[in-house]
């Protein structure tokens, strides 16, 4: 459904989201395809169990057959019988920087993806539509990386200690001040790993007797952190404010499950951009709800920092809101800044508390200095502190590329999920046969894409996820959206009634390619 | 050129069939097995349709026209 200006004056700009449903025959064919795969899976398992076929999987020795089973056979059914058949589309080794184009090592398989061997050849200049390189900072330009090289010479690569012991380097302090300035908050703290930032800090903030309200499509790091904390977790429907309000009202009215005491803390966990759907969180409504019911808000801006907002400051700036309204701002440097690590920002009391109580600060190695310097130079570039307008240009280029690419895909009639302004573009494929076919055919055309199926997505909604980057040129985007593969494979969505004549005309040289 | 277009279109149809029924991911011998079974079932459906459908349509047409159109010639012979 398209939303215009909803909720009166809460939204200062139109909030357009699309989650179009496919026609019924698509769902029927999807389940049919999975049914055929399951039947053949049973057949192969039968053949493997009765020795008619060589079993490539790990099995116990003959002497151990009477013991408790070591390997669970049925749970890996899907992995063995469907994932293995199309496994060559994942874990592809790259041998260059993952910029707008990259080099891939060529891999072939002789026994249907059970083993691979490298031919030694390198496929050059594959257009990269899978890397989270939103602002294009994954680059090897020597001039741009000059400060990073200097820091590498001065500090080396290893830190060899935790933040609380000997691992607190002046680069960390400089970076934290810069992050606080970038986000317009009081203080920030950086950690060496983005996943660990979530999973190790949520347990420090909430504990037993607290309530966590988390979105149903939250990332694994948030789910893990919530579970490790020991708090009660309740899940609300994705981006659905009525569901969240209902949960909040129930929580406040009924309190804790058996004793009916008030909850110690209520924490709402949301993400800025959800990487599988491409949807942007409804921040103004959540902030209104949190103020009304006196809950705390934890915003994970892993994909949205640097990627949305007029100057790249994330969803808070995108909606024109005050960063003081969000209690805990979390983000990662992996996606838009071309580095690694995460940060948590907010009030000074919060950050000082985390410096002493965070598990990551006490036990995990801190960020290494060259990576910190890369983030410093990228952030200075985005803020304009290095004296050029290159940062702002990158942010504008990204939003332009996003709009153009999404518009092109919509014109062609594909079902694309998500908000119009999010650089994550999931294109729905639905049928299991198309997952492997799409990725392979795109690679033949020298375009590298990421396809996702069950269990990362619901079973009937497998997709190909494009990540638009500021470093992509218009020609690259035209190549990708105009690839014959798209027309041939995904004849779903609004264009289902397209005449086959226009499609057949595009197959001029593909007939030979298909048979080679 | 027309032959080429026709061949391309037929190949495209075959490819769509492979994708929709998830045959694309199967190994060649599994594909042959699936094609055999599918064509057998399809042939049986077509044969059944050919044998039964016209007769049923004819009978249904007679039944409905009897309700709306009144009697027609009786099939009972008059005994002399």
From TrEMBL, chain A:
Its cofactor is pyridoxal 5'-phosphate. Its EC number is 2.3.1.50. It holds the Pfam family Aminotran_1_2. GO terms for biological process: ceramide biosynthetic process; sphingosine biosynthetic process. It is a single-pass membrane protein. It comes from the Eukaryota. The keyword Transmembrane applies. It is found in: Endoplasmic reticulum membrane. GO terms for molecular function: pyridoxal phosphate binding; serine C-palmitoyltransferase activity. Keywords: Acyltransferase, Endoplasmic reticulum, Lipid metabolism, Membrane, Pyridoxal phosphate, Sphingolipid metabolism, Transferase, Transmembrane, Transmembrane helix. InterPro entries: Aminotrans_II_pyridoxalP_BS, Aminotransferase_I/II_large, AON_synthase_class-II, PyrdxlP-dep_Trfase, PyrdxlP-dep_Trfase_major, PyrdxlP-dep_Trfase_small. Residues 124-480 form the Aminotransferase class I/classII large domain. GO terms for cellular component: endoplasmic reticulum membrane; serine palmitoyltransferase complex. It is an enzyme of class 2 (transferase). PANTHER family: CLASS II AMINOTRANSFERASE/8-AMINO-7-OXONONANOATE SYNTHASE, SERINE PALMITOYLTRANSFERASE 3. Belongs to the class-II pyridoxal-phosphate-dependent aminotransferase family. This is serine C-palmitoyltransferase. It comes from Pelusios castaneus.
Automatic annotation (TrEMBL), chain B:
The keyword Nucleotide-binding does not apply. One of its GO terms (molecular function) is serine C-palmitoyltransferase activity. One of its GO terms (cellular component) is endoplasmic reticulum membrane. This is Serine palmitoyltransferase small subunit B. Belongs to the SPTSS family. SPTSSB subfamily. Pathway: Sphingolipid metabolism; Lipid metabolism; sphingolipid metabolism. Keywords: Endoplasmic reticulum, Lipid metabolism, Membrane, Sphingolipid metabolism, Transmembrane, Transmembrane helix. The chain crosses the membrane at residues 9-27, 33-53. It is a multi-pass membrane protein. It comes from the Eukaryota. It is found in: Endoplasmic reticulum membrane. Its main location: endoplasmic reticulum. Component of the serine palmitoyltransferase (SPT) complex, which is composed of SPTLC1, SPTLC2 or SPTLC3 and SPTSSA or SPTSSB. The heterodimer consisting of SPTLC1 and SPTLC2/SPTLC3 forms the catalytic core of the enzyme, while SPTSSA or SPTSSB subunits determine substrate specificity. SPT also interacts with ORMDL proteins, especially ORMDL3, which negatively regulate SPT activity in the presence of ceramides. GO terms for biological process: ceramide biosynthetic process; endoplasmic reticulum organization. Component of the serine palmitoyltransferase multisubunit enzyme (SPT) that catalyzes the initial and rate-limiting step in sphingolipid biosynthesis by condensing L-serine and activated acyl-CoA (most commonly palmitoyl-CoA) to form long-chain bases. The SPT complex is composed of SPTLC1, SPTLC2 or SPTLC3 and SPTSSA or SPTSSB. Within this complex, the heterodimer consisting of SPTLC1 and SPTLC2/SPTLC3 forms the catalytic core. Within the SPT complex, SPTSSB stimulates the catalytic activity and plays a role in substrate specificity.
């Amino acid at each position: 459904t398209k939303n215009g200006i909803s909720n009166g004056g809460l939204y200062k700009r139109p909030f357009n989201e699309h989650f179009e449903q496919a026609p019924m025959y698509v769902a029927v064919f999807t389940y049919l395809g999975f049914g055929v795969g399951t039947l053949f899976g049973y057949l192969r398992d039968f053949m493997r169990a009765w020795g008619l076929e060589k079993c490539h999987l790990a099995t116990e020795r003959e002497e151990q057959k009477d013991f408790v089973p070591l390997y669970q056979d049925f749970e890996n059914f899907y992995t063995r019988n469907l994932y293995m058949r199309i496994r060559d589309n994942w874990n592809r080794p790259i041998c260059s920087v993952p910029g707008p184009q990259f080099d891939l090592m060529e891999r072939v398989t002789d026994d249907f993806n059970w083993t691979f061997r490298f031919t030694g050849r390198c496929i050059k200049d594959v257009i990269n539509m899978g890397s989270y390189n939103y602002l294009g900072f994954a680059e090897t330009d020597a001039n741009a990386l000059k400060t990073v090289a200097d820091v590498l010479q001065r500090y080396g690569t290893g830190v060899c200690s935790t933040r609380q012991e000997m691992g607190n380097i002046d680069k960390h302090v400089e970076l934290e001040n810069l992050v606080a300035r970038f986000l317009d908050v009081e203080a920030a703290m950086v950690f060496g790993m983005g996943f660990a930032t979530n999973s190790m800090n949520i347990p420090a903030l909430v504990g037993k007797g607290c309530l966590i309200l988390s979105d149903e499509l939250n990332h694994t790091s948030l789910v893990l952190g919530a579970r490790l904390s020991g708090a009660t977790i309740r899940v609300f429907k994705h981006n659905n404010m009525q569901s969240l309000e209902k949960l909040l009202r129930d929580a406040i009215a009924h309190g804790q499950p058996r004793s009916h005491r008030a909850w110690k803390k209520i924490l709402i966990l949301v993400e800025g951009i959800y990487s599988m759907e491409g949807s942007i969180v409804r921040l103004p409504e959540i902030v209104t709800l949190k103020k009304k019911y006196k809950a705390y808000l934890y915003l994970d801006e892993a994909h949205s920092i640097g990627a949305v907002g007029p100057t790249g400051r994330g969803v808070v700036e995108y909606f024109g809101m005050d960063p003081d309204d969000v209690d805990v701002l979390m983000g990662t440097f992996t996606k838009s800044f071309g580095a690694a690590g995460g940060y948590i920002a907010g009030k000074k009391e919060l950050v000082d508390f985390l410096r002493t109580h965070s598990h990551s600060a006490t036990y995990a190695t801190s960020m290494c200095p060259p990576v910190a310097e890369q983030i410093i130079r990228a952030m200075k570039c985005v803020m304009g502190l290095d004296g050029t307008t290159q940062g702002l240009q990158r942010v504008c280029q990204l939003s332009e590329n996003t709009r153009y690419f999404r518009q092109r895909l919509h014109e062609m009639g594909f079902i694309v999920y998500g908000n119009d302004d999010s650089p994550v573009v999931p294109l729905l494929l639905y049928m299991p046969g198309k997952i492997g076919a799409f990725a392979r055919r795109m690679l033949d055309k020298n375009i590298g894409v990421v396809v996702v199926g069950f269990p990362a997505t619901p079973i009937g909604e497998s997709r190909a996820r494009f990540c638009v980057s500021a470093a992509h040129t218009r020609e690259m985007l035209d190549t990708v959206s105009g690839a014959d593969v798209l027309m041939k494979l995904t004849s779903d969505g609004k264009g289902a009634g397209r005449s086959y004549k226009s499609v057949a005309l595009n197959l001029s040289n593909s007939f030979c390619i298909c048979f080679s | 050129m027309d032959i080429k277009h026709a061949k391309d279109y037929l190949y495209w149809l075959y490819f769509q069939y492979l994708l929709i029924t998830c045959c694309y991911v199967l190994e060649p011998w599994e594909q042959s097995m699936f094609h055999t079974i599918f064509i057998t079932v399809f042939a049986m459906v077509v044969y059944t349709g050919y044998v039964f459908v016209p007769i049923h349509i004819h009978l249904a047409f007679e039944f409905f026209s009897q309700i709306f159109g009144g009697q027609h010639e009786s099939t009972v012979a008059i005994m002399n």
